[in-house]
# Entry
Amino acid sequence: MTAPGFILVGGTIHDPVNGRDGVVGDLYIAAGNVVAQPADAAGWRRVDAHGLVIMPGGVDLHSHVAGPKVNLGRRIAPQLARRRPAAVPTIHATGALYAALGYTTVFDAAIATSAAAIAHRELADLPILDKGMYLLAADDRAVLEALARDDAALVARLVGDAIAAGRGWAVKVANPGGPAFWKRGRRGDHHDLDTPLPDLASLTPRTLLARLAAAVESLGLPHPLHVHTANLGLPGNWRSLHETMRTFVAAGRRAHLAHVQFHSYSGGDLDEGSFGSGVAPLVDYFNAHDNLTLDVGQVLFGDTVAMTGDAAAAEHLAAATGTPWAAHDLHLEGGCGILPIAYKETSKIHAWQWAIGLEWFLTVSDPWRVALSTDHPNGAHFTAYPHLMALLGDAAFRRAALDRVHPAVRKRSPLAGIDREYSLQELCIITRAAPARIAGLPHKGHLGVGADADITLYRTDRDLARMFALPAAVYKAGVLVAEDGEVRATPSGQVLAASASD
Amino acid sequence: MTRVAGTPADSSAAATVCTACPLLCDDIAPGAVDLARACAPGAAAFAAASAAAGAPAGAPAAWIDGVPSARGAALDRAALALGAARRVLITGLAGATLEGIATACDLAETLGAAVDPSGSDMTAAAGPTIARVGSITAEWEELRDRADLVIFWFCNPAATHPRFLERFVAPALPAGTVRRTITVGPGAVGPRDPANGPGTDPTETARCLLLNLKGHAVASTDNTVADLHAAIDAAECVAIVTGATGDPLGLDAWSVAGLVQHLAHRKPAFQVPLGAGIAGGGANVAGAAAVCTWRYGAAGAIARADRGGSLSLPGEADAMHLIARGEVDCVITIGPLATPVEEALAASSGLTASSGLTLIRVNDEAEPRMGGTSRIQLRAASLLVAPAGTMLRGDGRWVPLALSTEGTCPAAQVSDSLPAIVAELHARVRASGGQS
# Structure
């Protein structure tokens, strides 16, 4: 018999995994899970949810919240650190802010294997949320050498060992082969997928991606290879992303494409004058190949801090903007680059980035293969998610925003001709159900029996930004952790660590 | 010295980690006698710790006003003082493990205390260098394996980090590439002399070199700048090694970091900021900065520790200034202190009679600190003889001090470990309804 729990009574349930689209009903919660209606609910506490929208807790599958790179980001811009919220919040504030927003799970998307231990020490201080990390296993020199020899068994063993030792959830590659180029020159990022690595001539970024994806699949990790491909941020880089997708399709491998917005620019190589959107051919290809999933890495206007495991990309941005930056190279691995950045509506480049991200969201046909993200804090702070959801769900709101950006983008972006609006159910998919499914979390992202009782209750509001910014209540594993933006409890949450298939 | 797993080259032998300075040398031969690889200060520290640990009667667990005391009584007295204090400062920290630092921060948050690990960047009037000109750095093995030009920039690693040269500069580069080294400035960082020209003044030398690299002709009183320019042009990868600076404005650190920023856009180049080393108040400087940053958003000078939001005020809320200005009436020192902070405490001893400053020390010293400011001293086990926990090497590399550290806080399980003592103090403060 289930010990008495509580009942969320009469809420409007959005649970795409279980086919509930705005269905009024009750949810039974006990021992941290969603449970079946008990035969006798006497003794169960009843919580009135009439008039409230109920969704699973949010899942952010691509963010940067912990580790040495994030710590550098906290230090580099004190003026942004003093804002509320800080551009790169402290670890305690990160948990509180996410929870108050209705999010209950987060992954840090780029941790060097040698930094995993200290990052875990920091994540242990992250309150409320369940959390995990993707390890940059392919930056490791031994893995690269095994990939170059095409020794699949050794690659799998080394990557599996790294995941086990670093208690990682997934394998991330940030600019395939990038550190090898970076450590031997500058503008090292400007290579295509078929340029041999400087000292591993039998390995190209393309072969690295295909072989690494195979290793990840052979290990049975919950999440496919998480790919930040080459040439991030550069004009004309849509071709690199297109080739990246073609590589996985040709190899018959699954892959998750990270922050595609930053990889979808048309224009000539290094020619910022011809900068524009390269989304159309990319989204056509993506829509046709369901072995691929993506998160967008939406840019929103304002001040933030850019941080990446792709030091070459950071160096390029620092050189282009004249901004002081921070970098730290790791021995036998990659490194990182960090710098403050202000995205301005009046900047043509920034306005293109904003429009390109939205174009991706609004032209992808299957929301189940898309995760909402800003690549926090790179594109924008995660607390801007409600604003992004309003841009997707309210065409009038989006048109008004488009009217404020650089005139060249207003004129040339296809955004003006797109009327699509995400429904509440679709917003629920891209913030909960899809990221949980893509990340490989069967107990999250839905409200079926056996699911983790990570639940967010919203007040219905035509103003979607306001609605999603201030949940009425947030439950984590059945515990009320936030109410009307105020944190009520700070349980520690679980560390999500994968292990290779036994 | 701490026993850790052996290296791949000699998997049957255990090595030890020396916690005498931020190098955290992990290749020391085991045993109290065979310390052949240890530097002189490291070996001396180990010998002293071993002697104290092996004293027949054992050292007292605590002192109150210099008189031996039971630990419980000292903890009660310390908790009472903390409860009565108007404003508390917690400093030191860099000699503690990550676990010890976390425990001290927990206490600080309960007390609403100021926290400062006393890094020189936080003392500088202009604040941290990274916020003004960024920071391009690398792990020390990157210097060892990649840098064909190493510039020692107004520092003397042989004095501050005795084995740095042996471990990271002396080894040959791969593939027979020759490494060139250049020393700029006097043998050690000394007081700034504004009258000096290039080669003797860090800021001026950096300014001249930067202008020179940018193609501007700069009059120089010696050949330093021209030589450096030529060497940099010829190099594939440049490492600039710096030490702690005595510049109270922070311009010295600013100028060299800015120089590295410029270089790093041209070719592989990075700074290796070694800091004060042996004089820096502990081996875990990087760890203290890391924990403070993820908890409070800055590496130090935290005016009030608060999980809900803290404010860092470099040059204002750092340990030296808080003590010197009499803005705190209770100071808890965790582990050894950086020399400038120790001097500030010594200088404040005259204030204690009037201000009522209470000093609570938690460290591994076997003798009570004498002097007017030393009131309560709690003795913790030395990491040199009772290793536990983890530290970050000066370049941020994770170093476990003991074999079994994964996912646990082993130091806190030993009753006389520093984390355990601080946790006990915290428990008493909470029990007495201390500040929150």
